[in-house]
Amino acid sequence: MNKINHLQEGASAYEDLHTERIVCYFLKKINLFLLLSLVSLASCQSPKKSTSSISITDYRVFYDGQDMGYNTISGNFVKKDNILTGLFTGGPVGDMTTGKRPYLITSDDLGKTWTEPALFGQELLINPAEWEKEAVRLGLFGPTRKGTLICLGDQFVEGENGSGALRDPQWRDHTLNIGRKEMNAEDWTYKRYPTGTFLGEQFAAGGLQLSDGRLIFTIWGAKNKGENWRCGVLISDDDGISWKYRDVAFEPDFNIRDKPGVIAGFNEQSLFLTTEGKIVSIIRGREKLGRVTDSPKDTWFFRSESTDEGESWSAYELTDIAGTGAAAVGLTLPDGSFLHACRVPYSREMYKLPEPDLYGLHFARSYDEGKTWQTEHIIQRDPEGKPFTNYYNAMNGQFLKLNDNEWLYIFGQFDIANGVYRILSCKLTIQ
Question: How many whole angstroms separate alpha carbon 228 and alpha carbon 357?
Fold first, then answer.
């Protein structure tokens, strides 16, 4: 039996060697032809784009209203005619507590000073006299190509009288509110989308606008009670008047959960628009779905792409970047690479950390449309130099365009131990 195996192996080796000699023979024969062809092709191709460089400066406190009682760890900002308008959520800390309300602020000096916060969207309250029993959260997007501003976010009421919290943290069947303010309009108009309109749970965030005017926003949640989370997109072709839903990623298998009764799955997304018009979603996968083997507290990001403006999406696939707390829209640089911002993971060995004992904000870059990533920059202290000692000190952020070469990255600072709830920013200069 061994002899037969040896004979088979020898025959296989001979065939491989014979094939190799034939290939070499023909390669030598056509070598000159290939060389001339490559020279000809090179003369017809456009020059390769140079790699974009990034410098990060002006790291500072962007908004801090704590002295006036406005604790906030998140906000969305738009720029129009050199005026910044921001919308943040104020109220008790916690995803599932009531008493949250949106506030509007403006700045004419890029966030050095701000107007006093003004309550926003109060017409959405079910019972204004008992507003502390509700939570209204809104983010801001725009202006669209038609000059329209859009706000969107969820709304819920307390589960039991006096509880100040949801009835069931595993089934957050909230209402989704979407508001519009057209250019030159005096007032906002709102439309309510009750639970079940797009998903049973409807956590939406602003997204991007395509060259043809199509709006694509992110949304996630469980479609039906007891199911795993899924993520998708909301699409509008009429400047935000009407919307439709499309799935991006969903894994129905309950085995991805750590505990049978605790929901897991896909949730937050970061959308990237390539220079060719492809949309790439970098997706957070919770618990066993994306767990890092050597660092069980961490999860890998996943990836999906769309070549038909968000109507359909490829099967999800793992990337090699881990973390959470990313921006809803990533930055595509002039050279076509992606810039992603997310939390430094729990692992101390995954990335080369300037300060191995600290957490913080991780800027990462991809040159293959989000499949693989490399560190661009890491921030591990606040602007005053105080360390980020907790995983959640750096919250989800936003890339805000200032001009063709400059962007702000704006993100929340969430520090329960030191009682710090404010918004930070740094400036990215792209060359």
Answer: 34
Residue 49 banded pLDDT, cuts 50, 70, 90:
low
Q: Which of 252, 314, 321 is nearest to 289 (CA)?
A: 252
Contacts of 168 (CB under 8 A, 6+ apart): 159
Rounded to an integer, what distance in angstroms lies between the CA atom of residue 375 and that of residue 152?
A: 32
DSSP letters for 72-121: -S-EEEEEETTEEEEEEEESSSSTTBS-BEEEEEEESSTTSS-PPPEE--
Cβ neighbours of residue 67 under 8 Å, at least 6 residues apart? none
CB atoms within 10 A of CB 200: 18
Q: Say which amino acid occupies 316.
A: Y
Give pLDDT, residue 66: 95
**pTM of full prediction above 0.85:** yes
Q: Classify 359 as helix, strand or coil.
A: coil
The answer to whether 286 and 298 are in contact (CB under 8 A) is no
Q: What is the pLDDT of residue 146?
A: 97
